[in-house]
Design a protein that fits this description.
Blueprint (H helix, E strand, L loop, with lengths): L2 H25 L2 H17 L6 H25 L1 H4 L17 H22 L2 H22 L6 H21 L4 H24 L1 H7 L4 H4 L2 H24 L5 H23 L4 H35 L1
Length: 310
């Protein structure tokens, strides 16, 4: 091969390689992973146990890899649905940039490695919870529920609720009432969060044949359920304070944010099922992201405030 040809192919490789790496990163659902890592890290930080920073970092890495592994297997299984939806049709698998077998292999290998890493860096309880979260997301949510029932998000949301409990267990070696409360916080947050998205993306889900609540039960029933879940979320959001894990700085933040979440749900419930209503649903979806992020951030801040005040 001539020098010119070598230069030409080297140029192609230099351009293609970053794209390929980016595609594999996309398989891990980095946006979802960032939330999972954040809530898992918070669970570890607020636990009443000292963990060496290096071991803590490895435990958080295990949570991140486990989340990415589940995301890759989910994308492998749902590549046919993703090809039908405007929101997902440009993902690496439906767009043909990554082979299905490569995505599945990556997901399986990362699943095994993440659980083993958690067992070595933390303990068997945290490793078992991480394995349960991966298996639940893949087999219960992705394979069993997603295409069969409008309750897919309600039940399947348990998978995304595991990380703070895993973080707590990584630090303490057990699952306490506070760990369960953090699990329930994410679990009850998930349905109104996703249903807000589903309200203004219902055409996508209908086209793909996914039985999301707005598609099966209609917008009105979905909005009613969203109000119910935001009301149930209020006492659960306050549970870390009521259980004595944190003080009333967090409790005050949780109260204000939860009332705001309820207000958004009521606004969505009262708006018409048209573009105006979809705008309200978009605002609620965005608020739900801020809600969970600020709520979890307030947990370690409360401990710092308590130490300063004490």
């Amino acid at each position: 091969m001539s020098d010119t040809a070598h230069t030409f192919t080297d140029g192609i490789d230099s351009v293609a390689a970053p794209t390929r790496v980016r595609d594999y990163i996309d398989l891990l659902k980095p946006r979802v992973m960032s939330l999972v890592v954040f809530t898992g890290w918070i669970g570890l930080v607020i636990a009443p146990a000292h963990v060496h920073p290096f071991k803590a970092a490895l435990a958080v890495l295990a949570i991140a890899l486990g989340s990415g592994a589940a995301g890759a297997i989910n994308m492998w299984y749902e590549r046919d649905l993703d090809a039908l939806m405007a929101r997902t049709r440009n993902r690496p698998l439906p767009a043909g940039r990554v082979a299905p077998d490569d995505a599945l292999g990556l997901g399986v290998l990362l699943s095994i490695f993440s659980v083993l890493l958690m067992a070595v860096s933390a303990n068997l309880v945290a490793a078992a919870l991480l394995a349960a979260a991966i298996l639940f997301y893949v087999f219960i949510y992705t394979i069993w529920l997603k295409r069969r029932t409008p309750q897919n998000i309600v039940i399947g949301g348990a998978a995304g609720a595991f990380p703070p409990m895993i973080g707590w267990a990584a630090a303490t070696g057990d699952v306490s009432a506070v760990g369960v409360a953090l699990f329930l916080l994410v679990f009850l947050w998930t349905p109104p969060h996703f249903w807000a998205l589903a309200l203004y993306r219902s055409d996508d889900y209908r086209r793909a044949g996914v039985p999301m609540m707005p598609v099966v039960a209609g917008a009105r029933e979905t909005k009613r359920q969203m109000v119910i879940y935001t009301l149930l979320l209020l006492p659960v959001a306050l549970a870390p304070t009521l259980l004595g894990a944190v003080g009333w700085f967090y409790g005050s933040v949780a109260l204000v944010l939860s009332l705001g979440f309820i207000r958004h749900a009521l606004v969505v419930w009262r708006t018409a099922d048209d573009e105006t209503g979809f705008g309200a649903a978009r605002r609620m979806f965005r608020y739900s992201l801020v809600y969970l992020a600020v709520l979890f951030a307030a947990l370690p801040v409360d401990l710092v405030v308590h130490r300063i005040a004490g």
